[in-house]
């Protein structure tokens, strides 16, 4: 809490009086504010306790058992975790692949989203149409999207035709162990529309006066973008970053529908954490083992998210301090 | 300012001088937008092309990118089934409307509290909010099913609707970020004018948060409308199933190696997507063209 | 701070309570949601099946016939999209509300080994089902530790589809059940035009190459339940299949496949007219009836000794069913000729009932628009080998899929690949004692 934030309510109260009463008043106001906070936040707290907390605790317990989801679970202590970390090579492959996927798709998605939002923020004719076209891919059901993506990525498909025009011999994408992850990243970039929606909505909220003033000062549009738009957007960029990390680490359906089957690249090239976990839980009936995977994944995501929050203090520009 | 913007678009030449250069569209802007839209649309053109293909083409998987044949009758064929498509549509509408209402009602207040009000334990609680999103839903699915079964909610819409009234991590975080961008002087001024915390939220924050809430509405709608896993797990009666699950029936086959009727699958996908496109196309003015330019303009 | 800690403990308490409740529930997840009914053979049943809209029609028609005959039984049909069937059923059972009758296939022993299905030997006898007589060699296909857990319902052998135009262009006689591997390979070579036309497709599919393994006297899992995936017979059979792709070039490579289109398997490539011979199930017929190519069907070739994979499914009764007697009565009816005929009349699949397979209803279905020798299915059913439906079926398939990826690309020989797979299988498969 900054000094400013602490001082503000005191100033707002502005009741003249001796120091002790002012302090007592401050304290009671603080208590009232805290009460209001818990009152306002109570729907989420209640929902969490009722719908999420029990199942989460249950999965922690299950991760310490050999539960097959049908018969009585046997307690096995940390055995699942030990096996995952020391014996199961797929776990480490999946983790490596997932980090690779996230490390590229998240920043790339953010940059492209920001760039598109900036373009759409201009006074473009038919901007409704452009916005719709860019958001549209996120609406297409996955069965359809996966099917057409397989077609686009065929060795002699349209994407490679396009690359061929530029004189680049295209890879075999989904069949090639080194190109299957970039293929998945491409699919994630195709759905960049939802990040763009938020960035654009936030851009619309930036006071125009800032740009007018910068214009008078002779700042170029590029400069205005970096010194006005981006700083003003940092809370939303930060939101997209954190949600991007959380989402990317849990990538599932795309991997599942694009990389399965005998005619695809070897699995170790594309296996990711949640598809790995899903197989263990619902194809192999190792629910306890799958629960252990999910909690290790939780720790990994938590780690990266905390790093994001740590660095946020340096670059996220809040109108007011929210910490 | 909203008015000015609109005018500027209608008569760009007259207002050119008053629009900051950063907002002026150059031919380069148009070129880029067109190329990007075209590239993003290639898969969609394919969807349409497959939807219009004959059964022979589907059977041999011999599709072309640009439609070569136009079997419009495919669009009526998906209704020519024993599946109650109209009922599916109605169910989808009911579930989605409640889900959207629930999220839009709850998320704003909770997010505002996390952004503005001070309380002991708030930051820790906020980390819990974020952390709830880090557990794959696949792993809590069975415990959650048991929970809803104990509540007697299986084979009803309740598991698909009720949790939305308690918001979720994504939306709380989103609103918090939007609120934190607004100058704090606004609420302070309102407090001096005698508004309580709820008053500030209701009178000051809510109008300014509308774009964020509309975005939440659109995301919730998109998600709920397209979700088939939740309905699959919680619903048993065919008469209660939503359209997204109906589309799954079209693409499902009785043998593992059997190819689904791709033309009908794509028709189904188009029919499922179309209402969302219309909602987004019409709804975007509330998302982008409301005057919410923070601070000065918004409050008065 | 104090508030915080108090909250945490209260929450922790609540959570532990909830968790304990959930585990207790799952441990004794027997309180089925099934409606009450007498055990006299009547009652309300829930039946889960997988598939799409055509499957729904076929199953519902059969149920309608059943209800006409036994008005005291009512069945709620739950059609679940195939890819999500196992997950939904698993969740239902884990949540203590499993179906009464469930469709099962290769995964049957996942459930039977975990005590989720009722053994049917006595029930079936009581209901007057003679499995051997009704279904022939596949009567006891779905068994585990000498007990039967599902009654066959649909069952069709893998058969050979061949392109008549290509065969006559190459001056070849139609394929027969008597072809040896040498004859088969010679025909494929004659039918291949490099880069344009291939003799065969689909060798990578387990259903095809496992057939070669059993033709060669090999087994994937031996009679004691141990994996024997790297025996000489298996290695030889797999190598033969792999050579079709990488040595003789008579089967398209992965890259060539991918260029045929998205998700193109042998069926679609055959329909495109790029493949002379395709081995697959009954389902290809309906698509081919609409195609322009001239095709015919024949039984799978024999190699050393006849063996062929069968596709199908059975009906099982869940352990938690409150109405096992009504359920077996329903299954008896559904697997008897009257109801089984519907399976072929609707064009859904091959009925498992042998009597129906020999009847005119099957040999000349009303929807058949060209003369097709449907007797091929009946002929093949005698050659069907008993595939090892071990509880770890899915895991075993995954081990093969992953372990053979490099082999099919021609980067490894069969022995190296199978040695690695065998090692993996030894950790996965626990012999059923």
Automatic annotation (TrEMBL), chain A:
It is found in: Cell membrane. Its main location: membrane. SUPFAM superfamilies: MetI-like (SSF161098). Keywords: Cell membrane, Membrane, Transmembrane, Transmembrane helix, Transport. The chain crosses the membrane at residues 35-62, 99-120, 132-153, 183-202, 233-252, 282-309. Residues 1-20 have a biased composition (Low complexity). Residues 95-308 form the ABC transmembrane type-1 domain. It is a multi-pass membrane protein. The keyword Transport applies. Pfam families: BPD_transp_1 (PF00528). Residues 1-21 are annotated as: Disordered. Belongs to the binding-protein-dependent transport system permease family. PANTHER family: ABC TRANSPORTER PERMEASE PROTEIN, ABC TRANSPORTER PERMEASE PROTEIN YESP-RELATED. This is Spermidine/putrescine ABC transporter permease. It comes from Phytohabitans aurantiacus. The lineage of its organism: Bacteria, Bacillati, Actinomycetota, Actinomycetes, Micromonosporales.
From TrEMBL, chain B:
Belongs to the binding-protein-dependent transport system permease family. InterPro entries: MetI-like (IPR000515), MetI-like_sf (IPR035906). SUPFAM superfamilies: MetI-like. Pfam families: BPD_transp_1 (PF00528). The chain crosses the membrane at residues 28-52, 88-112, 124-147, 153-174, 204-225, 262-283. This is Sugar ABC transporter permease. Its main location: membrane. It is a multi-pass membrane protein. Keywords: Cell membrane, Membrane, Transmembrane, Transmembrane helix, Transport. Residues 89-283 form the ABC transmembrane type-1 domain. It is found in: Cell membrane.
UniProtKB/TrEMBL annotation, chain C:
CDD domains: PBP2_TMBP_like (cd13585). The keyword Cell membrane applies. Gene3D superfamilies: Periplasmic binding protein-like II. Coiled coil: none annotated. PROSITE patterns: PROKAR_LIPOPROTEIN. Keywords: Cell membrane, Lipoprotein, Membrane, Palmitate, Signal. The keyword Membrane applies. This is Sugar ABC transporter substrate-binding protein. It comes from Phytohabitans aurantiacus.
